[in-house]
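Encode chain A's predicted structure.
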Amino acid sequence: MSFTELLTPASCALTLIDFQPAMFQGVQSHDRKSIVDNVQILARAAKLFNVPTVLTTVAKDSFSGPFMPEVTEGIFPGQPLIDRTSINSWLNEDFRKAIAATGRKRIVIAGLWTGACVNFPTLDLLREGYEVLVVTDACGDTSVEAHERAVQRMVQAGAVPITSLQFVFELQQDWARSGTYEGVMDILRDLTPYGIQVRFSKWALGEHASEAG
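Encoded structure for chain A:
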C-alpha cells in the first residue's frame, strides 16, 4: 500500500453504502444535508471520471428504505443496487463479486453508519489485500464520538481518511484536463461553498450594475 500515491480514474473504485432514510435518521455526528451533498459530490465525480461504482442497501424493503434518489435517479439511473440482510457488506456474496468485478485494488468507501456499515467492510477489505480510502465527510454515525472512534479504528488498521472534494481533486489533478474541467466546476458550483460564493458574486455585481445605471 502506498500512502503517497494519488488516486487516478484508472486506479480506484467507489462504493456507497446504505444512504437510506432509516440510516439518515440516526445520524447525529454531522449535518445531514452536508452528507447528502458530499455523497452527490462523490457519485458525480465517479460518473464524470468513469470510476466503477458499487451501490448497496441494507433491508431496503423491510427496514431502511430506498437509496437516496439524488444518486440512484439523478446520477446512476438504472444501475442495479445490491440489497443485503447483513450489516457488513463484505458478508454478502454479490457485494464481494461486484467489488472484484471492478478490477481495482484501491476502494474508496462511504456509508452510514461509520461504526458499522463502513467500519466492518473496511476491515475485511484491508484483510483481503485492498487499499481502502474512507471518505469521512460523507459518512455519519449516531454521535461525534461514535464516528471519530470508528475512523480512528480504521486508520489504525491501515485505511486512509480523505474528504469528498479531495476525491474530486485527485481525479482531476490538473485544470488543463479540459475533458473533465467543466464537469468538476459544475460539481463545485452546485454542491460546495464555492458555488454559493459564485452566485453571491453574480448577484452583487448585478446589484452594483443596476445601482450604477
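The domain at 12-173 is CATH 3.40.50.850 (Rossmann fold).
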